[in-house]
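Subject: for your reference before the review

Hello V.,

The reviewers asked for a structural picture of the protein, and I figured it would be easier to keep everything in one thread rather than splitting it across files. Below is the amino acid sequence we used in the manuscript, unchanged from the supplementary table.
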Amino acid sequence: MNKIFKTIYNEVLGAWVAVSEFAKPNGKKSKSLLASAVAMSSLFTWGGVAVADDTAPKVDVYHLAKDLVQDDNGNIIGSQSQVSGGYLNFALINGSVVGYEGDINPEGNVSIGAQSFVKGGTDSFAIGSHAQVHNGPGTDGFGNYAIGAGAQVAALKKDGNPQSSIAIGSFAKVYGRESQSIGYEAQVYGNKSVAIGHGADVQADMAYAFGYQSHAFGKYSMSFGATSIAKKEQSIVLGVGSEASDIGSMVIGNFAYARGPYSSAFGTNAQANTGRSVAVGTLNYAGLYSDSGDIKDAIRNMPNFGLFGTEDDPLGVEEFNKFVKEVVDANSDQKLGHSSAIGVENVALYQTDVAMGFRNYAVGLNSVAMGRDNIAQSKGALVFGYSNRLKAEKSIVLGSNITAEQTNSVYLGDLSASDGWQTPVAPAPLTINGKTYSWAAASKEPTATTGTTGSNRQAANSYGIVTVGSVGNERQIQHVAAGRVSNDSTDAINGSQLNYYVKKLEQDIGKAGTGGSGTVPEYDFIGEKGISVEKKVIEGKTTITISYTGTGTTPGETTEIKVGANNPAEKGGANPVVGVKDLDIVGALTNSNEDPSKFDGGRNIQTTVKKDADTGKTTVTVALKNDLESNTLTVGGDGQNKKPKADGKINVVDKKGNTTVKITSGSEAEGTNSAVAPSVKVSSVDGQNLTSLEATGLTISAPATPGTTAPAVSLNATGLHIKDGPSVTKDGIDAGGRVISNVSAGVKPTDAVNVSQLNKTRNDLINRMDANHEQALGSAAMAMAMANLPHAIRPGDKTVSVAGSTVHGKAAFAVGISSSSLTGKWQLRGSVSGSDNGDIGAGIGAGYTWR
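And here is what came back from the structure prediction:
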């Protein structure tokens, strides 16, 4: 039969409610007001109540539909529904509110929908076909909501009854306390966990999964993005199709993997496959992976980034496969982990390997490959630059287009190469004044010493080379510090050291000609026609004794003795005295103590005559003069001879006779200082100076226009100046409006940059701005979606809402839950939003209202 209801104003709710005609405004069962209000609200929503008028409080009597029954405990039961005991419960449309295994005291529960039920506990909802809330025995299970067809809330066996858990969506499930699952087939098995999205799955405590088929299997794990997986404790995934497989691993990016403990992968298709490895950027591999766990299988699966050629190029594929086989064959169970791959398309294989830049392979233990298109495939190999390949252990390559195969070696510069250690041919040891001198480090012996001292210091067997070029690509090594010059030194010496010893040798040779130390050139004297010559060499000094042994010469008579026909070979002499132009030996008129012979060696040859008073023998010493004079100066390969002018100047004229170099007089050098002429000028035949070195500096000038004196180029103390063009001064470089070409890419903060670098920076900035623009549009769409979420308005209402939005083609969605207190003064709202950028956002808010 129908039962009469009336409306009364409830001060707690701040609203008019429909209650039994016998209920009091503030009776003992004050909860009945709440239950009735909730029930009536639900009936209004699903159309289960027939009312005389819906404008309360104008009419104060309501009539329940004929298929609704209220028992004495305030329970409302619809057709084919049931309520077993308890009070303030609501069952409608074949719903059930029952006690748990004989417990008949459920309270404040609502079940609406075919075969939906709330079993035990308090203040719980099961709304939708087959929706279920298993609160468990007693009143420990409370505040749980299962909303949607087949939605379920139940307890984990290990933790007792569920509390404050929510499952929203068809077949959404929550097994645990204070957990939420929102979405079709979303499920949570754990406490204080959240799963949001179609098929989102959480299998641990305090774990979170957001997105289609996202999974969080480890405690404290988080998975954001469609089909993403966070498998182990503290693992985090943000991206589509990505996976963090081990404890503490982290992934940010689509289709990326972090498979090792505490590994990190950032970027699309990045992989950190070993413990504590890091992959940053698109298609970077820090370590390699295989399902079998065999490192050699993993190497065989090494990605081919086209370093040897595209996958359509058979030769390129063949070269890559050969390279992979070399790496597999070299593997001897090297340690894995701690590798780093940063940039784009890099592979770092073993422990501490580093590959950075674009398309680099660091696949030798403790190897480094930085730059572009580099391979470091041996132990301790270090490669920096472009298109280099290093196969030898403990070697370094810095440059480009280098293939290095020498162990313990260094390759510097583009196209540097080496044939390996070349054993030098060392001369026999030299002994001077009892001390032996020999080459240091001239051979490689297994027992060679490696100390810093000792004349037998040599390079050990395994040492290699340093190369700075190749055949046709040689380089100077500049700014070399002076090396130690000693018997056991292996230091490099610079040009100034070599020049010093050259000058010192020249000086020592000059001293030898004037009786100083050194070696005096040896001269042969031959006597004929009664003249004998005796030669002795004592301590480097040659003594020649000439005596007359013939007969028929009258004493006092002047006799001319000619040695070697008295002429050089070029003038027909038979046996000339080497280095002597003309030699006349003339005897004295009397046998006095004066010099019996006179020697004239001509220019550049000096003679010294010494007579022995006891024996009467004369010693003639012949040597070069310190200062050499020449009538002829030979210039170039044409054999032209130039004679000095009367004023001491030397003019050099080319074959055409139109260019003259004038070297004017200068001061003599003193000590070790070189003499510098006050001026040097290069002039044309008409006398107009083209280049001059003055005391004030160097000036280079040429007429900009024929017949004028206006300089086209000048270099002086103010700088280098080109007429109508660039200039370089101490204040900087003025390009004169010209293009500065072939500018290398700047490296240091104060380096110049080229257009390529500027364009790259511009493109990077544009790309970043575009990305930020897309991100901003997605964020705006997310904010609009969250702003359009309907929320609970009336006291005691709880609202689940969904909203969507679009801004300039960017779409976003939002899901929200809101609740209003029984007094209507407190409101609590929470929402989660996402955009098609893959971004996820969440917000929560609370408000208090008063008058």
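For the response letter, the relevant points are probably these. The chain is about 10% helix and 30% strand. The CA atoms of residues 61 and 814 lie 40 Å apart.

Happy to draft the paragraph if you're swamped.

O.
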